[in-house]
Amino acid sequence: MAELISHHPVRTNTTCAVAAVLPLGFNPEHIGQLIGFYFSGQGLDKIPGINGQILGAGQAALHATEAHAYKIVWLSFLPGCVVAAAICLFMRNSSERMNWVVDAPLETKVDALSAKEQALEMDHTTVHIPTLNDNIEIERVEQR
């Protein structure tokens, strides 16, 4: 698969940009500076012989190469998606097995209120309700 991708007519992004700007009369000695500008956005004023047509052609070649790379990546997921969809078609509906009865249902509002009432009915001498004036003691625990 990697050999197929590497020998594709649209090669790497830098070689496509070079192939796009050389026919427009750009000096091949300054290709490194042009590629550096495309990837960093700096140094345009140091590239001799550059014009808008050359910049546009190189940038268009880089965008086409990037779009092709994304197409390869997204199409590589396609076989897995097709296999997963086929497996889903043959899965059996399991709704008939989803009939469990919960032995300990969740607490309802009525149950919560009765538990709160029971807590209030307890002797207040054994239960201390915290106030803002309480001193809070913190025990420091060292981690080893």
SSE map:
Elements: H1 2-6, H2 13-21, H3 31-40, H4 52-89, H5 109-121
Write a structural description.
By secondary structure, the chain is mainly α. It has a domain at 2-90. The protein has helices spanning 2-6, 13-21, 31-40, 52-89, 109-121. The radius of gyration is 35 Å and the shape is elongated. The two termini are 52 Å apart.
Fraction in beta strands: under 5%
Shape: elongated
Gyration radius (Cα, Å) is: 35 Å
Give a quick account of the main beta sheet: strands, pairing sense, barrel closure.
none
Strand runs, count: 0
Write a brief caption for the model.
By secondary structure, the chain is mainly alpha-helical. 52% of the residues lie in helices and 0% in strands.
Short key terms for the protein model shown above:
144 residues; mainly alpha; 52% helix; 0% strand
